[in-house]
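Trying the structure run again after the queue cleared.
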Amino acid sequence: PETAADEAETADPPGVSTEPEPSNLPSSALCHPDDTDTAALVVQVYTARQAIPVPEADVSVYCGDGSGNVLISFRTTNADGKTDSLLLSAPDRAFSESPDPPERPYAVYRVRVDHPQYISETLEDVQLFGGVESILPVGLTPYVPIDEPKPLRTIALPGHSLEAETEANQP
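Done. Tokens:
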């Protein structure tokens, strides 16, 4: 018989899911087929200027770079308003440490957060670096039902300064 100590040794680390994506979702490698590394993403959803976590928010991760609506991950936030850590394809970490990388040193994804009591948010161009765990804070605005459809707010994140340097160094 297993003891509690045996179970603790085999349990997943807190906040990290080893549960596979549902088999009907494609791998994030579909978005970035040449990437050789992974990045971890935790989405932290809150309201009231980060004072109140939003549990039970649906977080969908899609391919970025204009790849359309390819859903590659779906999670629900916990009582602290956080998803578990999502492992996604990203370029080799060495590219972000090089002054003249051969390609863009990060992967780009689109993240959408939905909750029935809040206005949905979509964040475009979420940048993830290989070998790095990133926390994406998402602030939701309460939704007050009126006689209009529930709005969707889209936020386009600015490009990274590394991308501008890479483009400037190209012949």
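Residues 47 and 140 are 5 Å apart (CA to CA). Worth checking whether this holds up in the mutant runs.
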